[in-house]
Amino acid sequence: MAPAANNVEPMVSATYVRPAGFAAAGDTIPFLLDNTYHLFHLASPLNTVYHPPRVRCSWIRQRSKDLVHWTRDTKPVISPGAQDSDPDCSGAWTGSVVLGRDGNMHIFYTGYNLPEGGGRQVILHAVSSDREGTEFEKPLQPIQLDSASANSYAQFEATDFRDPYVFFNEEENCYWMVVATRLAAESNPGAPYWTRGCLALLTSADLDVWMVQREPLYAPNNILCPECPEMFTLGNGKWYIVYSRFSAPDAGTLYVVSDSGPRGPYRSPRDGTGGRLDGRRWYAAKSCPKRGDPSKRIFFAWVHDRHQDADISGKWLWGGSLMQPRELRANANGSLVLAPNDSFLGSLRDVQLSGETLPAEVTLGTVGVQSVHRLSVVDLPADDTIQVLSFTMHGVPDMSSGNKSGCHNVHPDAKSFGLLLNFDDDLRGYKLSFAPVGGGSAGLFSVALVTDQPPLDDFWAMLTKHTDIPNLVDGPELVRHGAVHLDSEEPLRLVRNQDVIELFVDGKVITYRLPAREQKVNETDGVNRHAMVKVYPVGFFVEDGEVSFKDIRLSQVTITDK
């Protein structure tokens, strides 16, 4: 949802993706309790855009049994402190939820204090008097550290000691807390500033007193601070750490895996993904077990708002819209893959394009040139209506030589092919582009979301009079996955909620917030004949070759929120 022109966010009604009375949704904290999903998440105050007002967050909760129909709490679960001396007066930030030995729900979260703490971050422990977390008593002080932990705690910076993830580690019969932090400069003289990010480990027998482990649980020496971490195992003998990074390379949510138990060592997967689950705009993803199937997990995340102000390129903001839950599983080699969850897919109902019949198949392409097939504009009637365009892709058989595509693998003879999104009459917009890897004979492709407005050198910008082309933070190549297998029987799914798109293919996802296009429409009331409406054009393209797009379907579902 775009902010208002006066730099103030508009008032929004509650939907699953955005809570009423708050400007944006942020970091998710999902928790499965008695077959009900409790989705806690951060929410920024209304009428805020930039730091520090926007990050003075509260904790909000909504609940669901099927991941489609949601009920929202009428008031925040945790709100920032009112006094400058309160450790969370500048924001109640990310944390986790756990059931204690007392049978009650406990929240561990990050307190942020600017007035008296200079931006200090501490870990706070809020306790409920019941299992459901009906109401939480906020703490007055940070968590208690064991007296023997002072030297270990000094290994880490106090200005980045946050995002606690707490769970009961059955292998060691105690609670573990994984904390996003950074090695302190005083304890690590000469260590580069930008690569000291790590995950600290704390342990406790009772959730009250915590022992800080001296050595980091994970310290890759390539990150400023690994945000929003979590740990889990899927019953396959492996342990996984998932975390998010806000700086390139590999910005977004990633994972590392251990074959040797929860203490590691943790390594990036060797499956061509580098551990990337999506791009940088699907952020701070966290999960909980899937109801009835602990071998899978349900992941939640958010996509950034983009603020259009005096800066022509727009500014990406902290917080935005919650994304639909995704289902995660491990394949045979232990790599993690994502897909839409079953409840979401089961709720979809077929619809038609406005103004034309949706084709069941589109075959296009010419050797040496780019060919395009436009679909009609798809109208999205409401913010909480989500549409899914699904299709399969096939190579066009060369009948003269008798060479036909295989039964499952896709072998298109084309330089690139895929989808055009939000494009104009000059085909300026965005592409979801597939290109063969190693000639495509093994059915492997790279897939990338790219824009046709790449930044120019100053000389060329002035010469062509295109000084208005923005220098995008994400670059002209917005998201890429380098080793995607295309199966002619497995549909690709483009999920779209207004200006946010998600492409699901081969267990990988590309998420982005695309700016809507505007076009003139003729009003029938005779008052305004040239009204501007937002449109979201979609088309297929093939460059230098031929491809068939088959089994094309358009479905949608409305997500309810009370």
Would you kindly provide a written description of the structure presented here, covering whatever features stand out?
With 562 residues, the chain is mostly beta strands. The chain has a domain at 348-561: Sandwich (Jelly Rolls). Helices cover 3% and strands 48% of the residues. It is built from three helices and 36 strands. The protein has helices at residues 150-153, 342-347, 458-463, and strands at residues 22-33, 36-45, 58-64, 69-72, 92-99, 105-113, 120-128, 136-137, 144-145, 156-169, 174-183, 197-204, 209-212, 227-233, 239-245, 252-258, 283-290, 293-307, 315-322, 326-330, 336-340, 349-350, 361-364, 370-375, 385-395, 413-421, 430-436, 444-451, 477-485, 492-497, 500-505, 508-513, 517-521, 531-535, 538-558, 560-561. The strands form seven sheets. Strands 22, 23, 24, 25, 26, 27, 28, 29, 30, 31, 32 and 35 form a twelve-stranded antiparallel β-sheet that branches. A five-stranded mixed β-sheet has the order 1-2-3-4-36, with no helix packed on it. A five-stranded mixed β-sheet has the order 9-13-12-11-10. The longest helix is centred in the middle third of the chain and has 6 residues, at 342-347. It is globular, with a radius of gyration of 25 Å. It starts with 21 loop residues before the first strand and ends with a strand. Residues 1-12 and 399-407 have low confidence and may be disordered.
